[in-house]
Design brief:
- The protein is built from 5 helices and 10 strands; from the N terminus they run E-H-E-E-H-E-E-E-H-E-E-E-H-H-E.
- It is α+β, with helices and mostly antiparallel strands.
- The protein folds into 2 domains: 101 residues, Alpha-Beta Plaits (2-Layer Sandwich); 135 residues, Pseudouridine synthase I, catalytic domain, C-terminal subdomain (Alpha-Beta Plaits).
């Protein structure tokens, strides 16, 4: 059975995250249902490149499925007709059977967006946060995150992961062309709620509530209670996934 990769994007506002959950709408559920209908109601399993939580968006997302029901071009066309407007399929293409959407993803990048002037067109796509923030201090504190470290202090408790060690290669704030403050972070893997917990903590640095040294201490503590409250889901996007072997 050939393996196909699907390159998609989605607005996470209507969904309880990527992963199928009982009695809740999910992105994976919408896609699985559509593929199952195309497959004469025979269930099709899809494997995503990772999880996103309730209300979190994905500008770029990949999943794989082992299917041969239609050509890649037909699958793209039919899925875009069947799926809600909140999900788009950019491309469908064959890959080697051993290529895995989740385990072969080398780097993942998230961006978190904040706007400080009221804008109804950014609702559910950015966090409206009006207090003044010291971005220089936030960037200095973000440097503490870079490296191969234990991120227990920024992880949701009681998950099924075997380790909380992540390799972060980039973490910084900047202002984009839409006058939004953007936090961009790239790592080999992310823990559940990790980015939002980091953003919430760095916001407290920007408000001069805590210091860079405090962020270092929070990391060392390996205790979620030491970090700040998580930032809202609406501003978070899974921005990019990198595969060494992938070429569309």
């Amino acid at each position: 059975m050939p393996r196909l990769f699907f390159h998609i994007a989605y607005n996470g506002t209507p969904y309880h995250g990527w992963q199928i959950q009982p009695n809740s709408s999910s992105v994976q559920g919408e896609i699985t249902d559509a593929l199952t209908r195309l497959n004469s109601m025979e269930p099709i399993e899809i494997v995503g490149c990772g999880r996103t939580d309730t209300g979190v968006h994905a500008a770029n997302y990949y999943f794989h499925a082992d299917i041969s029901i239609l050509s890649p071009e037909e699958l793209k066309f039919k899925l875009n007709k069947m799926l809600p407007e909140s999900i788009v399929v950019f491309n469908v293409f064959p890959v080697p059977n051993e290529l895995h959407a989740r385990f072969d993803a080398r780097w993942r990048t998230y961006r978190y967006f904040i706007h400080q002037e009221k804008d109804p067109f950014k609702e559910n796509q950015s966090w409206y946060f009006t207090p003044s923030l010291d971005m220089s201090a936030m960037n200095k504190a973000a440097e503490v995150l870079i490296g191969n470290k234990d991120y227990t202090s920024f992880a949701r408790l009681h998950t099924d992961v075997k380790t909380n060690i992540c390799e972060v290669k980039k973490a910084n704030w900047y202002v984009n062309e839409n006058k939004q403050m953007v936090f961009e972070i790239t790592a080999n893997r992310f823990l559940r709620n990790m980015v939002r917990a980091i953003v919430g903590t760095l916001i407290d640095v920007g408000l001069n509530k805590i210091s860079t040294q405090d962020v270092e201490a929070i990391l060392i503590a390996k205790d979620r209670q030491e970090a700040s409250v998580s930032a809202p889901a609406c501003g978070l996007f899974l921005w990019n996934i990198e595969y060494e072997a992938l070429s569309e």
